[in-house]
Structure formats: C-alpha cells, structure tokens
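Hello,

I think I submitted the magnesium ion job twice by accident. Can you confirm which output corresponds to this input? Input:
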Amino acid sequence: MFLFQMALTDSWLQQQPSQKDAADQNFDYMFKLLIIGNSSVGKTSFLFRYADDSFTSAFVSTVGIDFKVKTVFRNDKRIKLQIWDTAGQERYRTITTAYYRGAMGFLLMYDITNQDSFTAVQDWATQIKTYSWDNAQVILVGNKCDLEDDRLVPTEDGQRLAEELGFQFFEASAKDNINVKQVFERLVDVICEKMNESMEGDMNLMTNHRNQGIKDSPSESQGGCAC
Ligand SMILES: Nc1nc2c(ncn2[C@@H]2O[C@H](COP(=O)(O)OP(=O)(O)OP(=O)(O)O)[C@@H](O)[C@H]2O)c(=O)[nH]1
Ligand SMILES: [Mg+2]
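Support: Only one job matched these inputs. Its output is below.
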C-alpha cells in the first residue's frame, strides 16, 4: 500500500505535462498506461480506435514506442490518460521495457486468431512483474473477436489464464469497436479502486497510531480519489 503511493508519486512527477500547455494542467489525476503484447495483435489499432475512433486494415508495425493522451471523466474526476503503445517486436524489447516503470495499468493483448500470441501472454506477464511495480493493474485483452471463423483461442482459455494471473479479462475488436472503451474504462476504475484502498489503508494506519492504547478498532476511513 505504501509502495503503491510511493510509485504513484514517482509516476506523477515523471508525467507532469509541459508547463507550456495550460490546458494539459486541467485534470485531477494522470494515469500512465501501457499496451503490450506480440507484434500484430492490434495494439496500435486498439489505441487509434479509442483515441481517434479510426481503424485501418493496413499493418504498419510500430517502431519503438509512441503515445497518445486522452482525458476521461469518471465519477466527477477528470483523469488524463497517457497511453503508451509499445512495439511488439522482440528487437525493441529493451526500449519498451524501460517505459514500464511508473505505469499504473497495462493492457496485455493477444490475438484470438493467433495461438503464439496467446502462448506469449505468460512471458509478457513476467515482463510486467520484472519491470513494473507490484500494484500495476492489468487487463488481458483477446483482440480481433470479429474474426470468429478464424478463432484459435477459445474464450474460456483466455478467461482461465486471466484468472490464474489475477488479471481482468475482455475480448474485443478494434476493427468493429467492440469493448474498446469498456476495456479502458475498466482499467481506469480498477486503478482508482486500488488508489482508494491504498489511501484508506494509510488513513487507518495513521488513526491506529494516533489512538494506540486508547481504542482497538480503527476509525472510519476517509479520502481516496472517489473514482
Ligand atoms: N480483423 C481485425 N483486424 C485487426 C484488429 N485490430 C487490428 N487488426 C489488424 O491487425 C494488423 C496489426 O495491427 P496493429 O495494430 O498494427 O498491431 P500491433 O500490435 O500494433 O503490432 P506492432 O506494432 O508490430 O507491435 C493490422 O493489419 C490491423 O488492421 C481487429 O480487431 N480485427
Ligand atoms: Mg503497433
């Protein structure tokens, strides 16, 4: 819980937008999110669908890393999302893993028509464990669910793996705009829930210290981002 807040502050400091852009300052929270997964699973397409509501069937493999910013409103809070789209190709791994630090949430994506991309999920999960902090929230996304006839990964397999890894799970389609917004909103919500838990825990800890020896039960906690 303490670690979460330490990392939160750290990521907050890293992500302060340029002073030049006054409009950028108009938010309550900024969350750094990363999209990871094998090449061609649809990471860039997913981000373009979410941020620009666009889709192209042309495949232009991402070189290194790129990002887009989008502001969302969740429960009266203005939350700026800095969404990093990573290259899936192995040769960019050193560059992309350098960006895991300070990320509060990950979309770990595979392609439901590509077994290798699903098999690789375990390795991607290990990368998250290795390079990010413990409280980073992860959603497993089986993309291209519009291609039902070509499906090689059953929905239940995705669900089972997500449960094993302790991740949330969605199937989605960047092409047909299925579950794209929902995935991002869920990720924002779980990050907010984690923040609230962390802050409530700290409040309880402080109250317990203050009342040490006076009463046993912790006071009702307050605070949190109320997301
Ligand atoms: N049918 C279908 N095709 C998709 C979908 N999402 C992406 N694609 C296609 O899959 C190909 C790869 O998509 P990208 O978004 O470039 O893949 P990527 O994961 O960013 O790949 P890298 O940048 O190499 O890591 C493109 O031809 C997209 O048009 C989808 O939901 N359904
Ligand atoms: Mg890409």
